[in-house]
Each structure stands twice: as structure tokens, then as C-alpha cells.
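Q: Mind making up any chain with C-alpha cells?
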Amino acid sequence: MLKGFFNVPEPVNEPVLNYAPGSAERTALKAALEAGRAQQIDIPLYIGGEEVRTGKTLEVRPPHNHQHVLATYHEGDASHVHAAIDAALAAKEQWETMPWEQRAAIFLKAADLLAGPYRAKINAATMLGQSKNAYQAEIDAACEFIDFLRYNVHFMTQIYAEQPQSAKGVWNRLEQRPLEGFVFAITPFNFTAIAGNLCAAPALMGNVVVWKPAPTQIYAANVIMQVFIEAGLPAGVINMISVDGPVAGDIIFSHPQFAGLHFTGSTHVFQHLWKTIGNNINLYKSYPRIVGETGGKDFVLAHPSANAEVVSVALTRGAFEYQGQKCSAASRAYIPASLWPAVKEKLQRDLAGIKVGPVENFENFVNAVITEASFDKLAKYIDEAKANPEVEIIAGGTYDKSVGYFVDPTVIQVQDPYYVTMCEELFGPVLTVYVYEDEQFEEVMNIIDNTSPYALTGSILSQNRYAIARATYRLRNAAGNFYVNDKPTGAVVGQQPFGGARGSGTNDKAGSMLNLLRWVSPRTIKETFDPPKDYTYPFLGKE
């Protein structure tokens, strides 16, 4: 086996640091936060190993303090998209022919840099630029990103080690070639780990990448590029551009060497890109790979047998960690009438004690939503709920954008299971609860399965094994990641590969071998050691 021969390190999930008062990691992180706030950095494009500055700059401001300028970043134009593609294609042959263990070494080194000297820096960048608290930044920018890099190497060796059988006198081999062309990675604001993995995973498999991070994540994306460069990533393998989406798309999706799209973002955008690729299919040298994780309207279903405290905590953590801006965040809950009074009481008590504010104050559980547009959208839904006589806001319902884009954790109770906030993706700290009669458990599962076009995450909370088994089967198509007696968030690389189907994406499971297989094109090679020298077969002989 290749893995044993080269003795690739066995991956282990990176331990999560707790940042408790007085801890060394807390001291280091606070120092990194202070350093980040004290200086205004200049973020370039990274094309062909060069830092490119266009002179046309935009500002990066913390969502929790929108009067403060953290950085400026240079915005590119069509010429920079062409340059990034050319740089990627120029690097392609040397990169894809490099021995795979040399590629592996680069990303394993990047993981160790993130686990060590860059840990506080990338966590602080994620906190400041994306308004994540210390714990949310730790499990994302440090731990999950490190896990992606280490486990991807592990999965790569498994892929390469899988070889066909050979008959006597024949040697059959399976070669996993990189795609013919370049991969375009489009990454979201909400997870630094996703941003890093979407460009790193195809690159590990020998591909070259043009990477467009979200402008609202570019502060931490800049650190990712610094890590890759220090780890030894050759020039042109990953090229980071900050260019208006339609400008980049017009060039990339009409390029004959476009070979694949690695995407996380909105369903609407992904569907538009898929249509564009389909319309241009005759232009490409090969059929592009399209891998995407998009929206979610994630659910929590409680059975009458569930523990009320467990349900309440699952809702609080699932719905309000990182302000409900996780793709997997709980945004709709179905609670039995017999359980609701106890769940409601604990939920209200816990939410009343949650502090909302800037990330620099480690007492704050909830921070700011990402942009003013997001804030205004959430405020609109909350105001509409307040005005509806059939809807009750049982917690929160308040918001303030005078300093930062703060929306208090809000719980809406509805009488109609198809009320707008039960169906539409809000991407914020708003949870909608529908209380059902205990005997309607089967009916509620039908409602859950048919309420939204998404199928990303969901959970069942129950002490009844028959109910768990029934829900697990009945809701098998409603969630690509399904949780039993847990919140529907917190997938761990190597443990719960992540991805959903239906309107939530292609379900190619980031953090598993399945995703990496999308970035290679297999070639079978048959070598015959003693080839025949006579065309005839024995059956041709006379009687």
C-alpha cells in the first residue's frame, strides 16, 4: 500500500483549545486581536506568486464595529482574471507532475503552521473580519481547517492506493490524473476553513486553482495565502483574486480550459452558475466538475419522549452560535405540546442570560451579523412577525446597528407550520418554533420533508428508539447530515463528512474521500509483459 510505504502520518482531529481566563491561548489570542486592530493592513491579489496591487481599494470593517477600518484590499478587473488563469495554466504541468508526497508535504506543513505560529493570527483575523467569538473562530479557522488539510492527505493516499487486480502476465494500474484545465473556487464569508479547503483540496490532487473569496472574508483569506506561501506552495498553483463576480464569471465560464467549480454560497447563485456552464458546455475541452454546497433550512424535531433541557440547549447552540450564520444552523423547530412549556421556560431563561456584543469581549456569546444588508433583511422579518397577530415573539426581537450589526437571539412561535420564517432561509439569529400535538408526530415529519427545497442538516431528539428509527428513515432525504439527540451543527472532518442534497448542493461531502474524487480523472493502464505474436486463437483449428 502506498500509505504504508511512505509512512504518511495518521490524521488525528486537532484538539480544540478552550481559551479559559488565564490560559496561554487566551493571552496569545488577545494580543493578536490587539495587533490586528492597531494596524490597517493592505491586502493584495495573489497571482502567479506575485502580490498585485491595483490601486483601486475597498475597505474591510468589523461587522461589530463598522466605524473601524481593519484593512483595505485591492479590487481587480478583467485583466486580473485573465492573468490568474494564465498563471494557473503556466504552473499546471510542473505541479501535476510533482510526486504526490511532495504536494502532501506542503499541505501538511500548512496544517502545522496553523496549529502553531499562525493559530492566534488566523483566529484573530476570523474574529475581527467575520465577527466570530473565540470559540467559534477556534473550531473553524484553526481546528477544522487543520483537519481538512491533514485528512485530505490521508484520503488522497487511500485513493492512490486503490488499484485493480492483474491477471498473469499483465500489470493493471489506475492513475488518478488531475483535471485537464483549471478549477475555479468560490468561497463564502462564514467559514475560514471552507475558504481554505475549497482551493486546497483540488490543489492537493494536482490541480491549479483560481480562487475568489467573499469580500467579507478576505481579511482571513489573506492569512490563508500567507500560510500556503510559507508552507512552500509554488507560484501559480492557487491564485487569489478579488474581482466582481459577474466580471470573473464571464471570463472563467467561457474559457475552454475551465475544468471545475468548487463552490459554497447561495442556492440562487449556484443555480445561475450551473446554467451558465450548461449553456457554454460546447466551449470546454472536457465536461467540468461542478461541486457545490448551498443553502439550508435546517430543522430540529423533538419527540414527546425527548428531554426538555436537551432540546432547549440544542436549540440555543444550534440556532444562535455564530449568529445563526452557519449553513447548518437550526432555523426551524418542531416541538410537541406536552414538552413545549418546559422547553420554552429554559430557552427564555438561557437566552435572557446571553450577552451580545463585540468579539473582543470574551463574555459575549453572540456577535454581529456580517453586513448591513443582512441586518436589514433580518430586521424586516422580525418586524413583520411583530405585526402578525398569529405570530408571537417569545425571546429577542430587538436589534441595533448604531455601532455594529447586532441582532439579539430571536425566537418566533407560529401557528402555521408554513409561515414565511419556517420556509425561507434567513441566515441569522432567528429561530421559528411550531408546536404540534403529540399524536401528530408522523404528520409533522411529512411537513418537515416538504416545507423547503433544502436538505442540508436536521436532527431528531428522542428517548424512544422506535421514534428515532422512524424519523431517521422517514427524513432520509430531508438532510444530508442527520443528528440524533444533538444539535444539527458542528460536523467534524473525518467523523461527519458534510454536505446536503436537493437545493442544498451536490452532496459531495467535504472532509471525505468523496470530495477529493471529484478533482481527479482516472486513467486505467494495462501493461502486457509477454504480448502475443500470432493473431489466431485455438478455436480456429480444424477437427
